[in-house]
# Entry
Amino acid sequence: MSLFESTDNVELQLFDDNDDETNGPNIRLNRNSATAADNDLLGRVIFSGDNDAQETIGMAEIRAASLDVTDGSEDGQLTVHVFIAGAETEEWRIEAGMYNPNATGAAQGTGTINAKGLFDDGNLTADFVFDRYFQEDVEYPTAVQVRNKMLSDDHFDPKTYAQHWKEYRRLPGMPDGDAVINGRAMMPIGELASRLLETCELQAIHIEELRCSIESLRADLVG
# Structure
């Protein structure tokens, strides 16, 4: 069966006038097989369009499969495919967890997401504190440069750094706890991860600075 519409009107609509809140229009794609087997493809929803050569391309696709057909322990799978650089690419799989096929470890369990990388505001978690400490000129994305400029020379001084957390009861760069609880300071998870990494690196520098000071004092005492 084919439906064709040359205008912007809707080609297919499903109506349900049942007042029951648990019901509504349903679409069921049912593969009724007498020899059901694991990994059977159950159906596909394909979104097609023409390229500039007037070739019809399935630009995006949703597929469903039965991973395990064992009675009482059935497992299903949903995959999302898109065309990238002229080739069909599987981007996501949903089964016992959601994951990208290129991520290490595949599905990690119900309610989890496994991906190759987490970007926040277009940037991966950045590592720039040591570059700043050694005064190395590294070109970072704009969002990282903004954060880098917020890092003052006082951050590298253990005494000044300690004065800050003693006075404000929080590490430099971290939001005020009361503001977070009351919704006045919302921080994206990517930025929070970057600031925690920044804190770890600053404290590593402080430890080395203190070690050098102790070694210097020891040398003076021995001398």
Remarks:
- The mean pLDDT is 83.
- The chain has two domains: 40-116, 123-222.
- The two ends are 96 Å apart (CA to CA).
